Every structure is written in C-alpha cells, then in structure tokens.
Amino acid sequence: DQQVKQNSPSLSVQEGRISILNCDYTNSMFDYFLWYKKYPAEGPTFLISISSIKDKNEDGRFTVFLNKSAKHLSLHIVPSQPGDSAVYFCAASIYNFNKFYFGSGTKLNVKP
Amino acid sequence: DTGVSQDPRHKITKRGQNVTFRCDPISEHNRLYWYRQTLGQGPEFLTYFQNEAQLEKSRLLSDRFSAERPKGSFSTLEIQRTEQGDSAMYLCASRSGQVGDNEQFFGPGTRLTVL
Q1: Quick check: A89 and B43 CB within 8 A?
Q2: How many CB atoms lie within 10 A of CB A10?
Q3: Partners of residue B7 on adjacent β-strands
Q4: Which residues pair with B32 in a beta bridge?
Q5: By the CB < 8 Å criterion, does A21 face chain B?
Q6: Is B109 exposed, middle or buried (0-12, 13-18, 19+ CB in 10 A)?
Q7: How far apart are CA B91 and CA B105, in angstroms?
Q8: pLDDT band at residue A26 under the 50/70/90 scheme
Q9: Residue A45 near residue A98 (C-beta atoms within 8 A)
C-alpha cells in the first residue's frame, strides 16, 4: 500500500524559475514530513522537514507547504539552480513511530 | 568522514548464494534502519534497530533476510539463497534518537545484482 505518493516522475524547470514538487499521502496519522534529495550513486540527503502543527517551513531557497485537509505537501525551490537537479523524495512518519514511508520520487532537471 | 558508511558498495552474486552487507552508522546514533530501493521507487522500510534491539521488521523481510546489530554499533544484513528479485539498492540510515530529532542520515547504499 503506497501511503505516500509522488505522481510526477519528472519535472523540468529553467534556471532561476520556481520548482514545485508535490506529494500526497493517505494516512491521516502522519504528523511529520521530510524531503530528501538524491544524486546518482549517493544515498538520499535530508533537505527540509515540517511538523503537522505547522503549514509552512522555510530554509533558504527551500520552502515546504503542508495542507493537512488535502493531505498534500509541496516543496518550492526558488530560484532553481542547475545544482538542484536530482531526485527528490518526500517521506512521512508518525512521530516517534520510527517508521518512515517514502514516495517514489520526482526527478528534477534544472536547465541552464 | 563521520557519515554513515556501507560496505560493499556493489555486489554481484549468483542466484542461490548468500550475501552479507555491513553498515556503520554515525557513532553517536543509537537508531539504525535498513531500506531497500528498486528502480523508480523510493526507499522501502525493511527493519529498525534501537541500540542492539531489533524493534520492527517489515513484511518485506522474508525468512531469507536477517539483520543484526550485536553491539549497538555497526549492523549487518544477510540475504540467504539470493533470488533475482533481491536485486536492488540496500540503504542504511541512522539517527540520533534525541527528542524532536527525526532526521535520518543515509549511507551511499550497497547495490546488489543477482544473476
């Protein structure tokens, strides 16, 4: 059962523009969400997270938005840079449940 | 380098052989996770350790799979009688376990190919 879904396998954006990556989840018990970035031949690296008590978290060029009623979160990257080209995974957990569910990933290509 | 390390990075084996992978977490992290990732998918949870105790195992972890963390530091994942369907990237992650600290740090993974 795919409890975390990323329905867009790929996204192409021009350098300097905004990249918006989307993620949907089905389990209303999830209360902590994370975004990871993965380059080829490397493990995923943590990017940004958000707790369900918030609807927005910002870190530099990266902002995550959470819409609990829609069970939807998104990652905004502004401005996009070629070095942002990677696969982005969203993940969800129930706090202290120690089990994380990952989406299938979105491959972002930022064109110079 | 104080990150999570995994060994080997690549493993090619014949069907029916046993393989063992090692993960060395960040030294002060008491929680360790194993994931499997296949092409086009995100990491799938396999098992989780808190110190040396294996607290949860996924249904994905068949009887041919076993994981250990004998001294609460490094961990091993063994697959017995490998099958072609076991071909995947096996990822290890660790986290500190401090309250409010939910970030997992991943290793580079071990890519298994079963011929």
Answers
A1: yes
A2: 10
A3: B22
A4: B49, B94
A5: no
A6: buried
A7: 10
A8: very high
A9: no
Mean pLDDT calculated for residue range B15-39: 95
3 state DSSP class of B115: coil
The dihedral over CA atoms of A27, A33, A35, A38, expressed in degrees to the nearest 10, equals: -60
Q: Is B54 on the interface with A (CB under 8 A)?
A: no
Run of H or E including A5: strand A4-5
Write the residue in A43, A99, A104 that is nearest to B56 by C-beta. Answer: A99
Model pLDDT, residue B2: 74
Cβ distance A86 to A38 under 8 Å? yes
pLDDT over 90 (residue A6):
yes
Cα radius of gyration (chain B): 13
Q: CA neighbours within 13 Å on the CB side: how many for A20?
A: 5
DSSP per residue over A83-109, as a string?
GG-EEEEEEEE-TT---EEE---EEEE
Other CB atoms within a 10 A radius of the CB of residue A67 amount to 11
End-to-end C-alpha distance for chain A, whole angstroms: 38
Tell me what the pLDDT averaged over chain B comes to: 92
Report the helix count and the strand count for chain B, using DSSP H and E: 0, 11
